[in-house]
Amino acid sequence: MNGLALPIPRPVYAPPMATPLLILRDIHLTFGGTPLLEGAQMSVSEDERLCLVGRNGSGKSTLLKIAAGMIELDHGDTFLQPGTTVRYLPQEPDLSGFETSLAFVEAGLGPGDDPYRAMYLLEQMGLDGSEHPDRLSGGEARRCALARALAPEPDILLLDEPTNHLDLPAIEWLEEELAGSRSALVLISHDRRFLEKLSRATLWLNQGQTRRQEQNFSEFEQWRDQAMDQQALDRHKLDRKIAAETDWLRTGVTARRKRNQGRLRALHALRAERREQRRVTGSVALDAAKGVQSGKLVIEATGISKSYGGLPVVREFSTRVQRGDRIGLVGPNGAGKTTLLNLLTGVLAPDVGTVCLGTNLQTVALDQRRQSLDPNSTLADVLTEGRGETISVGGQSRHVIGYMKDFLFAPEQARTPVGALSGGERGRLTLACALARPSNLLVLDEPTNDLDLETLDLLQEMLSDYAGTVLLVSHDRDFLDRTVTSVIASAGAGRWVEYAGGYSDMVTQRGGGVAEESEIKTPLKSKPSPARSQLSNADRSSRPSSRLTFKDKHALETLPAHITKLTAEIADFEVRIADPDLYNRDPAAFAAVTAGLDKSRTELAAAEEQWLEMEIKRETVERK
Question: HEC profile for 68-130?
Fold first, then answer.
């Protein structure tokens, strides 16, 4: 072996031992003059559990449509065993032309299929079959489409992002249903936990070609990284060879002209190979623009309740959010996650209770429906807000094209209407808009929708390094486990309970997932974790009394000026300590500035907390 790394072989078609039901071989397809698939392969056998992965725009959905017989190829072969039934779930199902959800599902049944299974699946997904398709939400339409694909129990199920717009109970139910299905599965999903539970093999689509690994998705990322490293090494070797041959061309053309002509032709062939060799797609450059530092206490919610039409959405909920906390909100669709988020951030006023926001908050919110995006505006106009060709990112001016490239947009997309972008592209555009604005409180409502796995990795790393506070609504269990320090979960009937740790920690403490509302348990940890500070007994004993004392009133009048003074002192200390020569020039002055900065920061945190306590007390007294 001589210590040399073995090269990773080029992708070849290698069918499994079982008889394939479906074969795609040497698939070529070009869209708009750009090759999308160049020799892609796929084989699906009985009882297959295959996940199809790749970057947004790599052609995963197109390959699945080819497998479903919906797209005509430029070149390649497709084979389907006679009598094999295939059902395909698109990302955006079309329910038009049907009077009810049941009629839509029943239209997918074939001769001999169980007619009662359509109604059974709809009931399992919380629908009664009488719903009119035009009045269904995105999640409800997705459930109908899933029921239509599952009802015939086909030989092959092709599922494109089946968990999109589903809540956690529906995702967990779907996992159990698919795990017990007799159908062969081909899955596209950004939900890691979903893929890990269901896959047995992984097909990686990259640069128009496919590589297959006969292992669960949990092994994919290490395998992919090794392959990418090998590709980078191969490109480097080819570049060096081209450079050496180019140098020979400049200096040694004269002797042995026939031999030289052969080398010249070989050099041209190398250059052609390099031109045709696709570069690895870059990564999104996610970095949130930093705002000023917020106060230590960010949000104080005490006994808040909110009802609509007499139905409680939030009932007697209290929490304290401190700077640096990353909190996830989970629950079924309709439980009130967005309502609770709006209550905590001051967008909505509670019917009962108080919410006090800390000082110096700079809030940036990302909504789950991308409603802030005008479909008729161009990508560049959305980023610059129609003001020329530059965008302010964290107070620094950048050309919009350069900032677009950070989020994997090509320069020619600058004038593309937002309405023409894919779901993943709209998700990246929303992130680009949000992260350009300075913030110390990020409010993210379903930020993972339509993002590919690599972008999710980068978003998770960005949130982990983010110096501010994060409030996050998500149905992605793996993303929650990687990101949050505590979880606020719906317990039904407007009740919400906070648990230390990520989603898996919540399940352990609660004794079940978000669907286990009837058997909810008190969190195992009654005391706060280091990441999440709760009120101590001393704090509770100092809660608002029935009236404001003279001392309380004096504090409310004087503390704002004191906070402003301390903030100015801290800014002055930070300017002085930023001098790179201060320590060498005057070590004693450096020590004094450092000590003063620490002292002022401690006093500021105490003053802010005292002011919030007094403000809560004042609001409570005034409500009586």
Answer: CCCCCCCEEEEEECCCCCEEEECCCCCCCCCCCHHHHHHCCCCCCCCCHHHHHHHHHCCCCCC
Give residue 132's Cα distance to chain centre: 31
CA nearest to 50, candidates 270, 276, 215 = 215
- The CA–CA distances, whole Å, from 133 to 99, 103, 104, 125, 137 equal 7, 10, 8, 15, 9
Query: Which segments within 447-579 are labelled E, that is strand?
Result: 469-473, 486-492, 495-500
Residue pair 11/209 in contact (Cβ under 8 Å)? The answer is: yes
Two structure tokens written together for 171: 């995702």
CB of 93 within 8 A of CB of 142?
yes
As beta bridge partners, residue 499 has: 487
H or E stretch including 504? helix 503-510
Q: Classify domain 297-362+438-534 at the CATH topology level.
A: Rossmann fold (3.40.50)
Pairing assessment for the beta strands 75-80 and 20-31 based on DSSP bridges? antiparallel
- Given a contact cutoff of 8 angstroms between Cβ atoms, the answer to whether 203 and 53 are in contact is yes
600: amino acid identity, one letter:
S
Give the torsion through C-alpha atoms of 584, 588, 589, 591, to 10 deg.
100
Residue 174 CB neighbours (<10 A): 21
Q: How many residues does the chain have?
A: 624
For residue 348, which amino acid is it? L
What angle do the packed helices 116-124 and 138-150 form, to 10 degrees? 140
Closest CA to 43 of 10, 91, 11, 75: 11
Query: How many CB atoms sit inside 10 A of residue 275's CB?
Result: 7
Measured CA to CA, the distance from residue 586 to residue 576 in angstroms comes to 12
DSSP code at position 137 = -
- Give the pairing of strands 495-500 and 486-492: antiparallel
439: DSSP letter: B
Fold of 550-623: Helix Hairpins (1.10.287)
298: its two tokens: 């960010």
Domain 20-222 bears CATH identifier 3.40.50.300: yes
CB count, 10 Å around CB of 421?
20
Residues 144, 93: contact at Cβ < 8 Å?
Answer: yes
pTM higher than the cut 0.90? no
- pLDDT score at 471: 93
Do the domains 297-362+438-534 and 20-222 match in fold? yes
Strands 396-399 and 390-393: antiparallel
Give the contacts of 32 (CB within 8 A, at least 6 positions apart): none
Q: How many angstroms separate the CA atoms of 170 and 148, rounded?
A: 15
Between the CA of residue 500 and those of 507, 531, 611, what are the distances in Å? 11, 8, 27
pLDDT, one tens digit per residue, over 517-569 is: 433 443 433 333 333 333 333 333 334 444 666 677 777 778 888 888 888 88
Domain coordinates of the chain in residue numbers? 20-222, 297-362+438-534, 550-623
Give Cβ neighbours of residue 98 (< 8 Å, ≥ 6 apart): 104, 107, 133
pLDDT in tens, 220-255: 877 777 766 666 666 666 666 666 666 655 555 444
For 388, other C-beta atoms within 10 Å of its C-beta total: 10
Give the tens place of pLDDT for each residue, 333-352.
878 898 999 999 999 999 99
Joined together, the tokens standing for residue 571 give 């800014």
Taking the C-alpha atoms of residue 66 and residue 1, their distance in angstroms, rounded to an integer, is 42
> Which SS3 state, helix, strand or coil, does residue 45 take?
strand
Write out the H or E segment, with its range, that includes residue 75. Answer: strand 75-80
Report the alpha-carbon distance of residue 214 to residue 202 in Å, rounded.
6
- Per-residue pLDDT averaged across 315-335, rounded? 90
